[in-house]
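Subgroup meeting minutes
Present: P.N., E.W., G.H.
Scribe: E.W.

1. P.N. recapped why we're keeping a running log of single-chain structure predictions: easier to compare across weeks, and new members can see raw inputs and outputs side by side.
2. G.H. added today's entry (322 aa).
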Amino acid sequence: MRAIQIKNHGGPDVLELVNIERKPPGKGEVCVKLEAAGLNYIDTYQRSGLYDVNLPYVPGLEGAGTVAEVGTGVTEFSEGERVTYTGVAGSYAEYINVPAERLVRVPDGVTLEDAAAVMLQGMTAQYLVDSTYPLKEGDTCLIHAVAGGVGLLFTQMAKMRGARVIGTTSSEEKAARARAAGADEIILYTQEDFEAEVKRLTEGEGVEVVYDSVGKTTFEKSLNCLKPRGLLALFGQSSGPVGDFDPQVLNQKGSLFLTRPSLFHYIATRDELVQRAGEVLAWVAEGKLEVHIDSVFTLNDAGDAHRKLESRQSSGKILLKP
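Output recorded in log:
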């Protein structure tokens, strides 16, 4: 089968299209013929070497397709069913073997492209607004990269809960997309100081929670945007890692809370995975959650897909189609 393989860490040019052996599914596994794979920033961290992986490595942690074959012991899925998953490496390929316990069915009314686009980012937004800081009516949140794939989903989920959304983005075009998703206030960080604007928009009080996927360039000011006892959920680092940090700063700024969560700790059990994925996919099927796909690339153009993701010029999800 065709797949993208990383043999050495580096830039997008190290993403090499190769032919590798397609292995049959093992015990408890399902072979999925992939229709689409989703790109995520973690893919770029693994490619560059920021996150350690064993080489050679087939990147990609989410996808959707149809069941091609089931391994021994699998009774829950059968050939031809539409399925999706996240958290299993190897999505930049034509086929992938996935443990049956990590698969979920794609409901009617959801395309395989939308399923691939929403699993990692949709469940990330879901656990952050549902569990890490349970947003409620009357809360105000700050969402960085509000017009990105996670940000647009985040905004819609926050509005479902009655929260006020302040978002940061880089351009008027992206701001328009975020407003269409329901954002109440948009700060163009290329033109305005987001800390000062958040203080102005909240009359000096700050926000209950900041959802920050940017990291290094936003971290300190994100803390400054919080109310006393507010929470900063640092769930990504697209601008680089934060570096050393003195926890005493949290005390000085108002007994703040800081967490560095990961989706995979919030879907560690089968029950949690099914609950979170089921909720997100049901919202898509019912039209409550709109999935915005920015662009679609072939496997042969995986390097260009990474370049677009890292350029921050995309708004919404980037997919690879085997």
